[in-house]
């Protein structure tokens, strides 16, 4: 009964509800953008919501095992500060990734209140040792982010067309994902039973309550020139670096809570620098998803189609179709008509290598091959 009450309270938390809305807005924005550029949605699957729920459940279970195993304790003031900043991050930047910044600002604000104790702060004093708990949340956030980056597929990158140099168009790609993870934490005091914190144990004169805290995770990746594996590889390396630093700072802050303030500031600066490095890496890359005059550039591939079975990927250039040279979309579909039941392509990949790709297609409907091209 207690568990059901905790879950019911979590499901009406503002951050969880805003996360649901954000995933729906990301879906609508993606579909609208793709239909604007291609007159069709590349992937109509509502994977944003599916990932929101799946990651929330799986990461919530594993994360709660960690938080309870380590006895993570957060004052209710810290919980309120975090949820307010996380909600603001969603409202102010659904298309961006401000979740990590909201977490770091929580640590800085809570630390400032803990040590300065300003006169305008009318709530109970924040214990400095709780800052170690916030730093542990930073570690969990980065670990969860690595899970999302590892599970990523290029199918989930949404293309967008923009004008390039010399009159040729360029495709850029976006992947944005939001999830709210239910983390079980301990909150000092038996406060606010009506708000979902429920007493579970008492040590000395201090009682502790269980609380399921909504924990915002967001990822945002943009590609303009890079091969996806390279861009994501850099992102993962940077996240591992942040995770290593945050883990060390968590240990230090356990013994010296005041070091947490320097730690949160250092992580924020490193996070901003890494974002700058990712942008520079994309600008320096050699590959462009640009419209070509020799062959037909693949902009995107619809999942579960003949093109997907042929393992075509965005950036491939189709040189030949059914033994006919093609240099435009019209020529490609004309060549497909030569054999309405089968398709044989000659393709140039990222590295310039030529390869053959072939598959059966839907008879009488060559446009259902699943290719998204420059229009």
Describe this protein's structure.
This protein is α+β, with helices and mostly antiparallel strands and 375 residues long. The chain has helices at 2-11, 14-38, 47-69, 76-92, 99-116, 130-151, 228-255, 259-284, 306-309, 329-336, and strands at residues 158-163, 169-188, 198-203, 206-223, 296-301, 317-321, 324-325, 342-348, 354-360, 371-373. It has 2 domains: 2-284, no CATH class; 296-373, PDZ domain (Pdz3 Domain). It is 48% helix and 21% strand. A hairpin with a 5-residue loop joins β1 (158-163) and β2. The longest helix is centred in the middle third of the chain and has 28 residues, at 228-255. Residues 119-124 and 191-195 have low confidence and may be disordered.
Query: Could you describe the largest sheet, including whether it forms a barrel?
Result: 6 strands, antiparallel
The radius of gyration computed from the alpha-carbon positions, rounded to a whole number of angstroms, is 25 Å
Chain-averaged pLDDT: 84
Beta-strand proportion:
15-25%
What count of domains describes the coordinates?
Answer: 2
Number of helices: 10
Specify the overall morphology. elongated
């Amino acid at each position: 009964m207690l568990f059901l009450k905790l879950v019911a309270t979590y499901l009406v938390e503002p951050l969880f509800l805003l996360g649901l809305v954000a995933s729906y807005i990301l879906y609508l924005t993606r579909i609208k953008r793709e239909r604007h550029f291609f007159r069709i949605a590349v992937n109509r699957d509502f994977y944003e919501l599916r990932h929101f729920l799946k990651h929330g459940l799986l990461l919530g279970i594993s994360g709660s095992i960690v938080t309870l195993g380590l006895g993570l304790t957060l004052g209710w003031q810290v919980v309120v500060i975090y949820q307010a900043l996380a909600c603001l991050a969603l409202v102010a930047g659904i298309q961006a990734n401000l979740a990590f910044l909201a977490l770091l600002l929580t640590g800085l604000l809570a630390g400032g209140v803990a040590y300065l104790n300003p006169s305008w702060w009318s709530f109970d004093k924040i214990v400095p040792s709780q800052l170690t708990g916030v730093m542990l949340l930073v570690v969990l956030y980065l670990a969860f982010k690595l899970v999302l980056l590892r599970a990523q597929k290029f199918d989930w990158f949404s293309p967008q067309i923009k004008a390039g140099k010399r009159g040729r168009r360029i495709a850029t790609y976006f992947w944005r994902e939001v999830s709210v993870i239910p983390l079980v934490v301990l909150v000092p005091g038996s406060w606010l039973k009506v708000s979902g914190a429920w007493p579970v144990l008492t040590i000395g004169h201090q009682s502790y309550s269980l609380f399921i805290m909504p924990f915002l995770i967001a990822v945002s990746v943009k590609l303009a020139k890079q091969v996806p594996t390279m861009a994501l590889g850099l992102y993962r390396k940077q996240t591992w670096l942040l995770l290593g630093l945050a883990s060390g700072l968590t240990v230090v802050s356990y013994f010296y809570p005041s070091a947490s303030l320097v730690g949160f500031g250092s992580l924020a600066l490193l996070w901003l620098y890494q974002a700058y490095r990712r942008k520079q890496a994309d600008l320096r890359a050699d590959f462009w998803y640009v419209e070509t005059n020799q062959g037909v550039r693949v902009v995107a591939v619809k999942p579960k189609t003949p093109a997907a079975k042929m393992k075509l990927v965005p950036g491939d250039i189709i040189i030949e179709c059914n033994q006919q040279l093609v240099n435009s979309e019209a020529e490609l579909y004309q060549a497909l008509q030569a054999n309405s039941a089968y398709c044989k392509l000659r393709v140039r990949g990222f590295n310039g290598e030529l390869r053959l790709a072939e598959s059966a297609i839907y008879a009488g409907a060559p446009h259902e091959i699943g290719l998204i091209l420059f229009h």
